[in-house]
Specification:
The structure is a single chain. The chain is mainly α and about 325 residues long. The chain folds into 2 domains: about 5-50 and about 60-165, no CATH class; about 170-320, no CATH class. Helices cover about 65% and strands about 0% of the residues. The chain has helices at about 5-20, 25-45, 65-75, 85-105, 115-140, 150-165, 170-185, 195-205, 210-215, 220-230, 235-250, 255-260, 275-295, 305-315, and strands at about 190, 255. It has a two-stranded antiparallel ribbon with strand order 1-2. Helix 2 runs antiparallel to helix 4 and helix 4 packs antiparallel against helix 5 (about 115-140). The two termini are about 30 Å apart. The relative contact order is 0.10. Mean pLDDT is about 85; it is low at about 320-323.
């Protein structure tokens, strides 16, 4: 297994060289973290593929047969996961923390500034890799096994376990990042028509794949609520309360800041170091509340917007997912 991609290695080698040239005490720390990741990658590489059967006591295992097993039985506890899946996940986190360390050093060591864009890009890409793996896992663990997209999700998860990548990762990462940035480029306005205004206003600023998604899913009430949660950083229950307040105060529309004030949420989301980190934390919050909502069979979206989007990608041919 290649520990670092060519882009990751270029950034790491350049940063380490600068730290060594200025005799920074952090050069040793960064160098050790690089070696740790390389050693972990070697262990991951020695771990058996999820498709292999060490004892060879049954029929030949393939990605198709493993996907069928996941579709038939779902994902159980961590002890049921392939060794390579667990170790590979740890390797991705190890690399994420390494680039996170470099991001912190950017503020203290000005010479590293020439690699700022590269450091942030690699950190974001690793974060989206973790997010994609979590999405596939969540989709398989929390759905009806007969859904038409389940097998594709299982195959993509197996690919993540084995190769730490997915055929949909680039499309998902770029499109989701674009939506998050559009969320801040314009001020979304919550009206009384289930978010129609928001969809119409942002779709023109986004890639074709988002326009296709919004057109395809616009009649799904839960998807629209999930979009509003994404746009306003409010959960469904807060949106219901807000709409009631709007009716009581005879308000037709409100923007995000006014919405937070009306709900006594004075502090908007904290400013994170990167777009991807802010998005990831928002996703984890929304996914958690959606799961609880599903368990309790309460009204509102049972998935995050990102999950609905991935399902859309899985249901469409890659050739049609043009950016």
């Amino acid at each position: 297994m290649i520990t670092f991609t060519a882009a990751e290695k270029t950034v790491l080698d350049g940063c380490l060289k600068i730290l060594e040239e200025i005799e920074s005490p952090f050069a040793f720390i960064v160098g050790q973290r690089i070696k740790d990741s390389e050693q972990l990658a070697a262990i991951v590489d020695r771990a058996p593929s999820p498709m292999s059967d060490l004892l060879q006591m049954g029929p030949l295992r393939t990605s198709e047969s493993l996907a069928k097993k996941l579709c038939d039985h779902g994902l159980g506890h961590v002890v049921d996961l392939p060794t390579k899946a667990v170790l590979g996940h740890g390797l991705t986190i190890s690399k994420l923390h390494l680039f996170g360390l470099l991001m912190k050093l950017l503020n203290a060591i000005g010479e590293l500034g020439i690699y700022r864009e590269g450091i942030e890009r690699e950190y974001n890409d690793l974060l989206f890799t973790l997010m994609a793996e979590d999405l596939y896992t969540s989709l398989i663990s929390n759905q009806e096994m007969k859904s038409t997209w389940v097998k594709e999700a299982a195959l993509e998860l197996i690919k993540m376990w084995d190769l730490r990548t997915s055929g949909y990762l680039e499309t998902f990462a770029l499109a989701t990042r674009d939506l998050w940035q559009a969320r801040h480029t314009i001020v979304p306005v919550l009206g009384t028509l289930m978010g129609t205004v928001e969809i119409m206003r942002i779709s023109a600023l986004l890639p074709t794949v988002w326009a296709n998604f919004l057109s395809d899913m616009a009649t799904n009430e839960e998807v629209i609520y999930a979009l509003e949660e994404f746009l306003f950083d409010l959960n469904y229950e807060e949106l219901v309360t807000l709409r009631a307040k709007m009716v009581a105060d005879n308000l037709k529309v409100v923007n995000r800041r006014t919405a937070h004030i009306m709900l006594n949420k004075q502090d908007l989301e904290p400013v994170e170091q990167t777009v991807a980190l802010a998005l990831y934390k928002s996703y984890m919050r929304r996914q958690h509340t959606a799961k609880i909502r599903g368990y309790r069979k309460k009204a509102g979206p049972k998935r995050s917007l990102e999950e609905y989007f991935v399902i859309f990608l899985l249901l469409n041919e890659k050739s049609n997912l043009k950016m």
